[in-house]
Amino acid sequence: MTRDITPAGSPATGAVDEAYAEVRASFDRFCLAAGIEALGTMMEADVTAACGPRHGRDAARRAHRWGRTWGRIGFHGGKIEVERPRVRGVDGREVTIPSWDGCAGGLARSLGNEPDADQCVDAPVRPRCPAARG
User: Fold this and answer.
1) From CA 69, how far away is CA 5, in angstroms rounded?
2) Residue 33: which domain range?
3) pLDDT tens digits, residue range 36-73?
4) Which residue pairs, CB below 8 angstroms and at least 24 apart, start in 30-33?
5) What is the dihedral sign for C-alpha 43, 85, 37, 26?
6) 128 within domain boundaries
């Protein structure tokens, strides 16, 4: 067996690459939809904890529902809009929802004040030769 009997054609990488791109886009859409659904569930649980059950008339509630608004969160280096509930306290001021605050900037704001690795302040360097000291 000194002869090679495999066909000398190029592998079908174009079709495989195209199929991979479609699977990746589909997976990204799935992750986005699942994340938005999980965030909505967490926000609704936070609103229920602050306001009580929907249409409830509990005198001990700390806040009440105040409609919905749109907020922006980061996804894959961009921003997407997500509908979120609004809550007002009994004093009339808007109450932050812990799950939204942690997602849409609370964590980013607390971490954003740290210096990056390339922005760290190094110790001053003293020149060694007397001519450079001035």
Assistant:
1) 66
2) 18-53+61-109
3) 999 999 999 999 998 888 888 878 788 888 999 998 88
4) 32/75, 32/80
5) negative
6) no
